[in-house]
Amino acid sequence: MIEVRDLQVRYAGRLVAGVPELDVGAGECVAIVGESGSGKSTTLLSLLGLTENADISGHVRVCGVDVLTASPRRLREIRGARAALVMQSPQSALSPATRLGVLMRRALRLHGVGSGKDGRLDEIMAESVAAVMLDRAILRRYPHEISGGQAQRFAIALAIALGAEVILADEPTSALDVTVQAEVVGVLRRLREERDLALLLVSHDLALVSTIADRVLVMKDGEVVESGPAARVLTEPSHPYTRELLEALP
Ligand SMILES: Nc1ncnc2c1ncn2[C@@H]1O[C@H](COP(=O)(O)OP(=O)(O)OP(=O)(O)O)[C@@H](O)[C@H]1O
Question: Ligand 1 within 6 A of 229 CB?
């Protein structure tokens, strides 16, 4: 689903993200961890061709599309629909005067989901909301009427309704309190298993990562300093920086 080789992202000549190798298959979860400014978000955004003004080299394939050479049209086809980005505070990205149901319906129509005469649109919306354990009544609410955890789950529901095969999540739970974080992670974990989603997660929260990721990439100052199975990296880190991150855990 995601295949990265020798990715280098530079701003004004400075290397801000260098990733030699990153693969995420269907049903897998890979996490990128590291301190603020280490290049995690830049890596994630570059996978959808969303790093404006950056010089990018290497090979990036997402859902079969060669991202670095694809036309804007081809990129628009995978963005949102096949590969969805879930950000830290999705509420701010939602139009404030539009009910969530209207917003979801528009997004689905835009991508041609549930179109035709079979009237599947309502069914798809109801199914996706149920899949993230939200009450259907949420579709009648406005963005300011829902909590951060609900907004996060709605963003995931939207991705599912659109038929996403890949979810790229940037600090999906860091704005939430601990109980709600666990709920959102639980939803992601279940969906990954039930729907074979490929999940790439950016987080500075190693405790969270240990509960969901199969593999971990540790980034520092724009470079991957360590990578491997989560169980190994998080228990027997080989790089001093990873040890530092682990020691900083409460
Ligand atoms: N559009 C841009 N133009 C110039 N520099 C940028 C741009 N976007 C990011 N950077 C720089 O790239 C580096 C990596 O930033 P990035 O946001 O990827 O880090 P991060 O690890 O995700 O940090 P955080 O956890 O704080 O989001 C930073 O030094 C940042 O200032």
Answer: no
